[in-house]
Amino acid sequence: MKTMIVAELSANHGHKIEIAKQTIKAAAEAGADAVKLQTYKPESLTLDVDNEDFVLKGGLWDGERLFDLYKKAFTPYEWHAELFDYAKSLGLVCFSTPFDKEAVDLLESLDNPIYKIASFEVMHTELIRHAARLGKPMVISTGVASAREIEEAIAACREVGNNDITLLKCTSAYPARIEDAQLSLMIRMRERFGVKVGLSDHSPGSMLPVLSVALGGVMIEKHLILDRSIGGPDAAFSMDINEFAKMVRDVRMAEEALHSDADINESESTDIAGRQWARSLYASSEIAEGEKFTEQNVACVRPGFGLHPRHLRDLLGIPTKRKYRKGDRIEEP
Predict the structure, then answer these.
(1) Cβ-based neighbours of 293, under 8 Å, separated by 6 or more
(2) CA 202 to chain CA mean position, Å
(3) Residue 312: φ, ψ to 5°
(4) Is the CB of residue 84 less than 8 Å from the CB of residue 94?
(5) Are 118 and 99 in contact (CB under 8 A)?
(6) For 52-110, how does the pLDDT look when each residue is reduced to its tens digit (9 = 90+)?
(7) Is the N-terminal amide bond of 175 cis, ω within 30° of 0?
(8) What's the rounded Cα separation, in Å, for the pair 18 and 191?
(9) Are 248 and 220 a contacting pair, CB within 8 Å?
(10) Radius of gyration of the chain (CA)
(11) CA 73/CA 231 separation, integer angstroms
């Protein structure tokens, strides 16, 4: 199965729709399969208050009020229809992450094909039910979620008859460190919860996306920015166009390396050309017709085009059926 590579636009538009469209075009040119928006208003996420609880401490946005951060980052609702249409015109799947019921309703009016639930919304089961009841594929990031919260999110989907669920392994740090990835959890989540898995990645480079393909990931999500000079809350941990294009190439090569319709063949090598480096049985000296094979006239040497070495013991002491010159392949018994 081809891994869906998703370019996350998020806040990387500098509040200019033309930059958003240029980024979507660049995603298509870089080989992305889909582009994802985030659909919210600041009041969808938090309160406009100065209470200390609502001020971020540490990290990339230290000292920033939550409301102010989301005001900088949101994508205006009035852009959505144009961005959806533009992405589709370029052959991209366009979908979004809603953060409240109003956002879900807006997206459904645009025929949003996939609903993504952000890791910080995993515990918002009412939102999950509201989206899942529409019967579209559900993609859920797991960054800050406990096992119980993941179970509850999956249950919320299944309660309304939606079983098309993909969990994305996510480290909710901005940027995330590669050593904190714990990608082996992808396998455990697939086995424990009986769902598809993928990766939402905020780390630098392509290493984790490539590894996620080897672990059976069906989706990779990475933030994309035209140029980090645009700035914005997500610029520091977003890939630029060249980095994103390289990631796409790396992922596709990983898929090629993993993909094979062949099974291990019990009787023949799957690498015929490589047989020149294997051993097989050859006449090491001239052998007359009727003369017995011995350790002195049969050698187990490279290349591998003669009789398989497994037959050597059975061959010794048997009279030849024909004459052999030195270097002839042994073709008996």
Answers:
(1) 287, 315, 316, 317, 318, 320, 330, 332
(2) 13
(3) -60, -50
(4) yes
(5) yes
(6) 999 988 877 788 898 988 898 899 999 999 999 999 999 999 999 999 999 999 999 99
(7) yes
(8) 43
(9) no
(10) 29
(11) 11
